[in-house]
């Protein structure tokens, strides 16, 4: 093993806990009895709901229309009947319109036919991506067609495929890499066609060296011009800014996008979704979710339709193994959202569902140890920002770079006093924006 | 029960409490080493500190309604305070430090996280400046308590140099005081004897010496070596410390023997007295020692002159000098040798007499020179009584014409003068000059006659002018003259051809008068040629060859007056006044000594001393000084004893007698005291000064007491008592049976009997060697116990020491362990570095072992509690500055500073790893921490090398604690993407 590169500044090293679900192959979830498909599964404006109670829907039918430039279409994951259109509380706490679908007992076999995407133009592929409702599947759920639509005057130096999966517990991307590498690579080639980058890099952390090997072998056999780059483990390497720093050693300036430095980052899961969209014209209606955590009886990687309720996934994994459950988390433990309602539906960005054991944390006072400062990947001073937010000096906090904070949680993770730093920053951003 | 919280949902298992426990754990090895090094007391200090900190925290938590005790910060503060205390410190010091740290430094600003100074350091600095001495007094670490090594010393472990009996042979060679040598080597003492002594003489002397000092010369034998030189042989090697003393004894005894003095060494201490005098610009001295009197004299006198003078003195003062011989002293001066040792009490009498005689000799000599008749041209002039002059040059007498007189008158006068007074003018011619008249005598006129001639001519001229000329009178006239010189009266009466002269017979002997008359005849042949004299009871009668003309009477009288005065003046010192001189002086014992004429009265305390005692005393004086007291009787008055001498006492003796009686009275009075003490002789007091390190003191011996100065600050009376026991045991021959006790600034031995004066030197030299060795030994231990390497080095540098740290430390006796010395010998690393690294050094409980502190620090870094930046940069910057500038105070110059020892000593390691890394009081950014650490390194360097205190870690860190908020304000981390953005803006 050589020395793998990584981003320089800050970062933490939480235990990755991936061993819980790492070796369980992707299983297809049996059809749930009810799906709750949110209209707000992406960053940006919620989709316009196209269905009402009692309507029948086909699998892959568009049920939500992108309402603005930054928005995404939503498709029905199953064939069935709309039993209800109502507000639903998502794991993030946001409330959105959702179409509740009762699936038919028998689902049609769909999306088997292959299309030759190679013959399609760049723009056709781009609109296909939009039409298939593809969003970033790493968690941020940024509409992919927006990201891939390179503004005039900019060119793409590097396409970086994010296979880092730096959040502990999560193994969905890993399993996709291991089991569906060909699709992933083909998806990347689709992106290649859309973006025509000078180089393509797949960044993978060094705890997934088997995936690295697997992909490299495959790339060799297919003679793709793709560079697989193992990276030194460090959270939050999966953030696109950190990933770009680690892979192509460029820093995205504050307030700018990766394209401003000639780079596009795309999640590995998204690449697979693009593959499915381009080859099978299959919308994004299902995804691989890692169901893990110490409180889950059998952690698994499950291919589940979008809108699956947390309870269905948990029961498929054998339920809880203890009465003492701490938190249910949607996404990774560092940036995911805790929720309490087990009926909460999965969305396009739900990479994981974790059931964690309770942890007793004593919150102390700041002792100026500086660990948050030293570990902040963005070079901020969380202690000062937090103090200023505490004293309602939001502007000072913003001046200190509050808006650059990605809420990656490194500071709160490392803080010996267990101060709720991220909470403070979320609040500070909201209140600061209002002002 | 599910909970919902904001991300992140996992945390490090880090917590403040856990970190504090880790810090405590990391400190434990060094603290444990401190307890091992300094003993149980160190543990108690640690416990007291911890308990006071935790208790203070608890109470303040109660008051402030915050439960902060469990965060463990008070525990760490307490442990650090304890580790920053010397183990010897009284318990109230850590208690004060703890309360200050927790209550003032921490809670005043709001408790944990809000303090801006490290509480433990602030507590330490607070008590350091409040109890500086207590905080700077360190115990010797366990490893150095015994079996330590002083680098740079030849002897491996400290031994009293006094044990040198067994060391290499010391050879001591000294003059024996009599032109030879005394050589002591191993067990032999070789004594040169002057020539002229047979072996049997020498043997008897050697026997006598051995018999006289049975303890010192116990078991000694003697023999004559192949060169015929006497050698004593001791039964075993002679202690080196005895050499000087033995030589002193041998010199004394040799002198006693050769000078043939009754060997009464106990009481016959030789008094040496010196008197200074000044005469005619010459500063001289009279020294009396034993039976020898040495006087110095000006260069203008040769030995012959001095011999003549000495003869005259001996003849003049037979009472004092009978049987004395005299010779030129070897070392310059002239020396009288009396037949016997001179009574000390008579020193003053001799010196006063000799002083008078010498002053007279030197002063009188110069007068004679003026009087010498010279053949060289001499001239003098005086007035003629008529507005003109009479000048005499050689044989020419010129007379200015008086007013109204011409050549003819003067010619008549002169012719008449020459005719009338052939005694004065026989063979003279006369002639007129321009404005004067001149008489040419047959021969040049001696200068001493100028005045005589001039006044005679003046008188005759007056008679001639006034017409009352009575040139030759046949009628008998008597002319009397009386005059006084030096308090003595003399008369001269001239009738016909007889001159009767009375003179002070007490000072002028018949011989002198005879000589005086001879002088007159020789110097003034005109008047005195053919004179005869007869000395009667108290006058001398001169008979001239012919009747003296009446006109000559006054001139002759004036000659007699002049010459006799000179004689009286010369001998005035010998004067015995008829009744004038009375001396009245204090006896020194509450009364007076009065001398008048032939009586000496001596007051004494009649209530304390009986008449019979006084009689015995007086008899003793008379018997012992037969020459002086020949024919003296005495009787008692109411309050005094009165001595009656057969004749009036020479005044010159008065002062001497006063001193003599003062001395004798002193002996009498002292004897009274001495009788109580049951010791029978006058006390000799001898002292020898010694130096031991910085301390200088003296050993002194008086009677049977020996006092020994010692530094009372650093050596206790118990230590001195033990020392006294040891020296008494070690030197039974000189100190056997001595008792000892402590005095104010000295320690005192009391021997059973008065100490033989001749043993003083021996005892003093032995005891001064022993005590100085003892002081050096004890104070060297003291140096290390009260000083860290840093403070010892600093003190030495302030005291002017130069050189590298190792040499400076070894010069002030800072010890190292045997292991360090051995390891140093193998590797060349300074043993101090090794000991400091391992923790075998003086200092605060927790700061001594650099090794264990580094281990603890590495543990903390690996546990993620601290980062490496502050310790490494702190120590690194200090090391670099030390290397560049650290050599300056020690005089080694730039780039010659030491690094390792300074890093391992003092509080640097403890400070760098455990205090400067305190979360609360250090900057939060890495760059800020680096700046902070450089500042710490800089100030530590500055305080240590150029400040007044040896240590600067605490102050440096506190100073940088104060700067920390400023650092945090200006030093911010580089934001992600920040520089790039700025660059783009520029474009």
Automatic annotation (TrEMBL), chain A:
<dbReference type="Pfam" id="PF13375">
    <property type="entry name" value="RnfC_N"/>
</dbReference>
<feature type="domain" description="4Fe-4S ferredoxin-type">
    <location>
        <begin position="357"/>
        <end position="386"/>
    </location>
</feature>
<feature type="binding site">
    <location>
        <position position="405"/>
    </location>
    <ligand>
        <name>[4Fe-4S] cluster 2</name>
    </ligand>
</feature>
<keyword id="KW-0677">Repeat</keyword>
<feature type="binding site">
    <location>
        <position position="366"/>
    </location>
    <ligand>
        <name>[4Fe-4S] cluster 1</name>
    </ligand>
</feature>
<dbReference type="InterPro" id="IPR026902">
    <property type="entry name" value="RnfC_N"/>
</dbReference>
<dbReference type="InterPro" id="IPR011538">
    <property type="entry name" value="Nuo51_FMN-bd"/>
</dbReference>
<dbReference type="GO" id="GO:0051539">
    <property type="term" value="F:4 iron, 4 sulfur cluster binding"/>
</dbReference>
<feature type="binding site">
    <location>
        <position position="376"/>
    </location>
    <ligand>
        <name>[4Fe-4S] cluster 2</name>
    </ligand>
</feature>
<dbReference type="Pfam" id="PF10531">
    <property type="entry name" value="SLBB"/>
</dbReference>
<keyword id="KW-0004">4Fe-4S</keyword>
<dbReference type="GO" id="GO:0005886">
    <property type="term" value="C:plasma membrane"/>
</dbReference>
<dbReference type="GO" id="GO:0009055">
    <property type="term" value="F:electron transfer activity"/>
</dbReference>
<dbReference type="GO" id="GO:0046872">
    <property type="term" value="F:metal ion binding"/>
</dbReference>
<feature type="binding site">
    <location>
        <position position="369"/>
    </location>
    <ligand>
        <name>[4Fe-4S] cluster 1</name>
    </ligand>
</feature>
<dbReference type="InterPro" id="IPR019554">
    <property type="entry name" value="Soluble_ligand-bd"/>
</dbReference>
<dbReference type="Pfam" id="PF13237">
    <property type="entry name" value="Fer4_10"/>
</dbReference>
<keyword id="KW-0408">Iron</keyword>
<dbReference type="Pfam" id="PF01512">
    <property type="entry name" value="Complex1_51K"/>
</dbReference>
<dbReference type="InterPro" id="IPR010208">
    <property type="entry name" value="Ion_transpt_RnfC/RsxC"/>
</dbReference>
<feature type="binding site">
    <location>
        <position position="372"/>
    </location>
    <ligand>
        <name>[4Fe-4S] cluster 1</name>
    </ligand>
</feature>
<keyword id="KW-0249">Electron transport</keyword>
<protein>
    <recommendedName>
        <fullName>Ion-translocating oxidoreductase complex subunit C</fullName>
        <ecNumber>7.-.-.-</ecNumber>
    </recommendedName>
</protein>
<keyword id="KW-1003">Cell membrane</keyword>
<comment type="function">
    <text>Part of a membrane-bound complex that couples electron transfer with translocation of ions across the membrane.</text>
</comment>
<feature type="binding site">
    <location>
        <position position="411"/>
    </location>
    <ligand>
        <name>[4Fe-4S] cluster 2</name>
    </ligand>
</feature>
<dbReference type="InterPro" id="IPR017900">
    <property type="entry name" value="4Fe4S_Fe_S_CS"/>
</dbReference>
<keyword id="KW-0411">Iron-sulfur</keyword>
<comment type="similarity">
    <text>Belongs to the 4Fe4S bacterial-type ferredoxin family. RnfC subfamily.</text>
</comment>
<keyword id="KW-0472">Membrane</keyword>
<feature type="domain" description="4Fe-4S ferredoxin-type">
    <location>
        <begin position="394"/>
        <end position="425"/>
    </location>
</feature>
<keyword id="KW-0479">Metal-binding</keyword>
<comment type="subunit">
    <text>The complex is composed of six subunits: RnfA, RnfB, RnfC, RnfD, RnfE and RnfG.</text>
</comment>
<dbReference type="InterPro" id="IPR017896">
    <property type="entry name" value="4Fe4S_Fe-S-bd"/>
</dbReference>
<keyword id="KW-1278">Translocase</keyword>
<feature type="binding site">
    <location>
        <position position="408"/>
    </location>
    <ligand>
        <name>[4Fe-4S] cluster 2</name>
    </ligand>
</feature>
<feature type="binding site">
    <location>
        <position position="415"/>
    </location>
    <ligand>
        <name>[4Fe-4S] cluster 1</name>
    </ligand>
</feature>
<dbReference type="GO" id="GO:0022900">
    <property type="term" value="P:electron transport chain"/>
</dbReference>
<keyword id="KW-0813">Transport</keyword>
<dbReference type="InterPro" id="IPR037225">
    <property type="entry name" value="Nuo51_FMN-bd_sf"/>
</dbReference>
């Amino acid at each position: 093993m050589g020395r793998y590169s990584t981003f320089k500044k800050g970062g933490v090293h939480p235990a990755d806990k991936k061993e819980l679900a790492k070796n369980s192959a992707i299983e297809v979830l049996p059809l749930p009895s009810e799906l709750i498909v949110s209209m707000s599964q992406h960053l940006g404006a919620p989709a316009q709901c196209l269905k009402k109670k009692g309507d029948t829907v086909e699998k892959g039918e568009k049920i939500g229309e992108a309402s603005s430039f930054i928005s995404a279409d939503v498709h029905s994951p199953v064939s069935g009947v709309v039993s209800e259109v109502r507000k639903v509380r998502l794991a993030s706490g946001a409330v959105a319109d959702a179409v509740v679908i009762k699936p038919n007992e028998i689902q049609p076999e769909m999306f088997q036919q292959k299309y030759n995407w190679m013959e399609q133009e760049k723009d056709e592929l781009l609109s296909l991506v939009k039409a298939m409702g593809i969003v970033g599947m790493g968690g941020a759920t940024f509409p992919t067609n927006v990201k891939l639509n390179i503004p005039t005057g900019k060119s793409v130096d590097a396409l970086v495929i994010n296979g880092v999966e730096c959040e502990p517990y999560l193994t969905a991307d890993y399993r996709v890499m291991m089991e569906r590498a060909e699709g992933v690579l083909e998806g990347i080639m689709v992106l290649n066609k859309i973006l025509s980058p000078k180089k393509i890099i797949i960044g993978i952390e060094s705890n997934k060296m088997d995936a690295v090997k697997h992909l490299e072998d495959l790339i060799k056999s297919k003679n793709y011009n793709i560079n697989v780059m193992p990276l030194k483990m460090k959270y939050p390497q999966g953030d696109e800014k950190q990933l770009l720093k680690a892979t192509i050693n460029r820093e995205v300036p504050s307030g700018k996008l990766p394209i401003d430095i000639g780079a596009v980052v795309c999640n590995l899961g998204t690449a697979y979704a693009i593959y499915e969209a381009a080859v099978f014209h299959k919308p994004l209606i299902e995804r691989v979710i890692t169901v893990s955590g110490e409180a889950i009886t059998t952690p698994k990687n499950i291919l589940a339709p979008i809108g699956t309720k947390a309870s269905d996934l948990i029961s498929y994994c054998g339920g809880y193994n203890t009465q003492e459950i701490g938190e249910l988390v949607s996404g990774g433990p560092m940036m995911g959202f805790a929720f309490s309602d087990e009926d909460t539906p999965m969305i396009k960005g739900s990479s994981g569902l974790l059931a964690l054991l309770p942890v007793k944390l004593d919150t102390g006072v700041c002792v100026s140890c500086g660990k948050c400062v030293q570990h902040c990947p963005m070079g901020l001073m969380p202690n000062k920002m937090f103090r200023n937010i505490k004293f309602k000096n939001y502007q000072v906090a913003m001046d200190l770079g509050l808006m650059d904070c990605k809420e990656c949680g490194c500071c709160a993770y490392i803080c010996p006093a267990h101060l709720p730093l991220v909470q403070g920053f979320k609040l500070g951003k909201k209140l600061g924006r209002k002002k | 029960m599910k909970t919902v919280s904001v991300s992140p949902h996992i945390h490090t298992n880090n917590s403040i409490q856990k970190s504090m426990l880790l810090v405590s754990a990391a400190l434990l090895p060094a603290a444990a080493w401190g307890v091992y090094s300094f003993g149980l007391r160190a543990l108690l200090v640690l416990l007291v500190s911890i308990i006071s900190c935790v208790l203070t925290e608890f109470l303040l938590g109660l008051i402030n309604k915050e439960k902060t005790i469990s965060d463990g910060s008070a525990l760490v503060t307490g442990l650090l305070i304890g580790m920053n205390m010397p183990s010897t410190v009284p318990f109230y010091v850590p208690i004060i430090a703890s309360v200050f740290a927790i209550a003032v430094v921490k809670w005043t600003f709001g408790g944990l996280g809000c303090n801006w100074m490290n509480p433990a350091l602030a507590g330490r600095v607070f008590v350091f400046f409040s109890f500086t001495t207590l905080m700077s007094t360190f115990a010797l670490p366990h490893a150095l308590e015994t079996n330590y090594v002083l680098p740079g010393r030849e002897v491996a472990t400290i031994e009293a140099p006094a044990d040198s009996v067994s060391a290499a042979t010391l050879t001591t060679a000294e003059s024996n005081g009599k032109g030879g040598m005394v050589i002591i080597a191993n067990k032999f003492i070789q004594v040169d004897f002057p020539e002229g002594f047979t072996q049997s003489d020498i043997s008897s002397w050697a026997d006598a010496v051995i018999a006289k000092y049975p303890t010192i010369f116990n078991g000694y034998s003697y023999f004559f070596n192949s060169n015929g030189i006497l050698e004593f042989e001791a039964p075993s090697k002679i202690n080196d410390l005895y050499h000087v003393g033995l030589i002193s004894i041998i010199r004394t005894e040799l002198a006693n023997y050769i000078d043939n003095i009754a060997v009464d060494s106990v009481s016959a201490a030789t008094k040496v007295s010196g008197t200074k005098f000044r005469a005619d610009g010459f500063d001289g001295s009279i020294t009396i020692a034993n039976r020898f009197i040495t006087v110095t004299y000006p260069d203008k006198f040769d030995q012959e002159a001095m011999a003549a003078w000495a003869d005259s003195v001996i003849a003049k003062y037979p009472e004092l000098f009978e049987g004395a011989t005299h010779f030129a002293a070897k070392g310059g001066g002239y020396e009288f040798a009396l037949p016997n040792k001179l009574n000390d009490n008579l020193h003053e009498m001799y010196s006063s007499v000799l002083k008078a005689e010498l002053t007279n000799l030197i002063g009188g000599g110069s007068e004679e020179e003026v009087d010498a008749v010279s053949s060289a041209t001499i001239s003098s002039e005086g007035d003629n009584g008529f507005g003109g002059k009479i000048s005499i040059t050689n044989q020419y007498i010129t007379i200015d014409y008086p007013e109204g007189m011409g050549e003819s008158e003067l010619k008549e006068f002169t012719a008449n003068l020459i005719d009338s007074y052939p005694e004065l003018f026989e063979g003279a011619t006369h002639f007129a000059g321009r404005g004067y008249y001149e008489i040419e005598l047959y021969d040049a006129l001696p200068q001493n006659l100028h005045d005589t001639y001039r006044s005679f001519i003046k008188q005759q001229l007056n008679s001639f002018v006034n017409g009352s000329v009575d040139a030759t009178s046949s009628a008998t006239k008597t002319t009397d003259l009386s005059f006084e010189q030096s308090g003595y009266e003399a008369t001269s009466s001239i009738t016909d051809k007889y001159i009767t002269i009375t003179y002070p017979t007490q000072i002028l002997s018949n011989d002198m008068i005879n000589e005086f008359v001879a002088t007159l005849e020789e110097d003034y042949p005109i008047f005195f040629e053919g004179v005869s004299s007869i000395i009667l009871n108290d006058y001398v009668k001169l008979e001239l060859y012919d009747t003296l003309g009446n006109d000559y009477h006054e001139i002759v009288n004036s000659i007699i007056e002049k010459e006799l005065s000179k004689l009286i003046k010369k001998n005035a010192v010998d004067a015995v006044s008829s009744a004038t001189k009375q001396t009245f002086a204090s006896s020194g014992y509450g009364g007076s000594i009065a001398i008048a004429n032939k009586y000496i009265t001596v007051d004494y305390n009649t209530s304390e001393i009986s008449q019979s005692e006084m009689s015995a005393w007086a008899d003793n004086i008379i018997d012992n000084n037969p020459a002086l007291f020949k024919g003296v009787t005495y009787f008692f008055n109411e309050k005094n004893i009165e001595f009656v001498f057969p004749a009036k006492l020479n005044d010159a003796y008065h002062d001497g007698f006063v001193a003599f009686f003062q001395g004798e009275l002193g002996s009498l009075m002292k004897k009274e005291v001495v009788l109580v003490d049951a010791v029978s002789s006058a006390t000799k007091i001898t002292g020898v000064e010694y130096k031991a390190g910085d301390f200088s003191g003296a050993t002194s011996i008086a009677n049977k007491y020996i006092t020994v100065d010692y530094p009372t600050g650093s050596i206790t009376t118990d230590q001195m008592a033990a020392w006294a026991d040891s020296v008494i045991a070690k030197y039974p021959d000189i100190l056997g049976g001595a008792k000892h006790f402590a005095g104010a600034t000295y320690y005192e031995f009391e021997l059973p009997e008065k100490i033989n004066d001749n043993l003083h030197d021996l005892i003093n030299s032995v005891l001064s060697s022993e005590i100085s060795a003892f002081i050096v030994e004890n104070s060297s231990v003291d140096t290390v116990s009260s000083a860290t390497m840093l403070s010892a080095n600093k003190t030495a540098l302030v005291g002017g020491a130069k050189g590298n740290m190792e040499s400076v430390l070894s010069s002030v006796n800072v010890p190292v362990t045997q292991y360090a010395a051995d390891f140093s010998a193998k590797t060349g690393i300074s043993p101090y570095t090794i000991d400091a690294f391992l923790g075998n050094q003086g200092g605060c409980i927790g700061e001594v072992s650099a090794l264990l502190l580094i281990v603890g620090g590495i543990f903390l870094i690996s546990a993620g509690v601290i980062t490496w930046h502050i310790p490494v940069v702190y120590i690194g910057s200090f090391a670099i500055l030390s290397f560049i500038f650290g050599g300056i105070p020690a005089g080694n110059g730039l780039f010659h500073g030491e690094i390792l020892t300074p890093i391992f000593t003092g509080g640097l390691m403890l400070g760098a790893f455990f205090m400067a890394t305190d979360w609360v009081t250090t900057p939060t950014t890495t760059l800020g921490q680096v700046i902070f650490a450089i500042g710490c390194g800089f100030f530590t360097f500055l305080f240590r090398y150029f400040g007044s205190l040896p240590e600067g870690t605490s102050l440096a860190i506190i100073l940088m604690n104060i700067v920390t908020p400023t650092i945090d304000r200006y030093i911010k981390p580089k934001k992600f993407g920040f520089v790039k953005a700025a660059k783009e803006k520029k474009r």
